[in-house]
């Protein structure tokens, strides 16, 4: 349960500090535009993404069980967050995030991190691809420059996009495509550099320089605040807690699963081993902290963690530097964020959704393994897109565990007929 920060500081050196400083600043430049885009796609104010990256990112690195984990808002939460805000308002989301933090603290204290091995992999793959599809669909409006309102339902949104096809504008589409192309180019030519913020800054700069007819973040949300808000407790009335418990459980489940998956990926990349109990406790503290400052749900971010490793991050100090760098940027350069082009952020999220779906594994998903696993993945995917993430995860885990019991040939229960 001991945080990795405490153990890594015992033999910390000046060389490690230099490496962590560079890695922390690098990953902060990646996290900045992503945090803004994720918050906007979730239906929240852009500043909430930065608040989450600062508060939750700091706590995850300070208290977590991984040497190189980077925490903050992630794309996996977009669907859940948008749904909670739509049904219960932003105050409801804050309460659900607070409850999820308590659930994660309990899970960490009970050492429930090892239970992740019982979640069927096809379920994780299914809802991840489903979430990626929903994110991509939600960004087409800004990418195409369409102003017509969009419904939440996937099928209805497709129909609305088709009906609004006459509104497609060339400049927003060009800015979005250029952003995607630049990000891809930077990843291939300089993968250790923060290509995300450079690409978004270049295309947004072109919009400002040539006064192009493209909506910016400032046009929609105004100027971002400088600094963090004052902390405050959310609504914890019994009726509100009962109403938001299902949402809190889903947030806790996603935060726990994604953080532990990210930690395992980091272990494979570095050769170290994370402490699952400490990681869950850190996720609980991070979500509590984020909710107190009016932020979003948070978890370990696989892509940002990998960026940290590739940039040379060695200890949790890199994660602390990442959070403090974003705070410094918010204090000094918040007004500059108002010039970011909405199609550029949409292009960034479209590429994030594509990478999140891991297209390199699609063929294996469709052709390898048990037929029942492929069916389980397809079922979870379809339920995620067309129904509700709660239903998708509940059904997927239930059916997956039943399939596992069947494969192990567990004998059926010897029921005694009731004497009635």
UniProtKB/TrEMBL annotation:
Transmembrane spans: 20-41, 90-110, 122-140, 168-186, 193-210, 244-266, 323-356, 376-403
A cellular component term, taken from the record's GO annotations: membrane
InterPro entries the record matches: SLC26A/SulP_dom (IPR011547), SLC26A/SulP_fam (IPR001902)
UniProt KW Nucleus keyword: no
Membrane topology note: Multi-pass membrane protein
Coiled-coil annotated spans: none
Residue ranges annotated for the SLC26A/SulP transporter domain, each copy included: 17-362
Localization, UniProt: Membrane
Keyword annotations of the record: Membrane, Transmembrane, Transmembrane helix
Keyword Membrane set for record: yes
GO biological process: transmembrane transport
Name of the protein in its database record: Sulfate permease, SulP family
Organism lineage: Bacteria, Pseudomonadati, Pseudomonadota, Alphaproteobacteria, Rhodobacterales
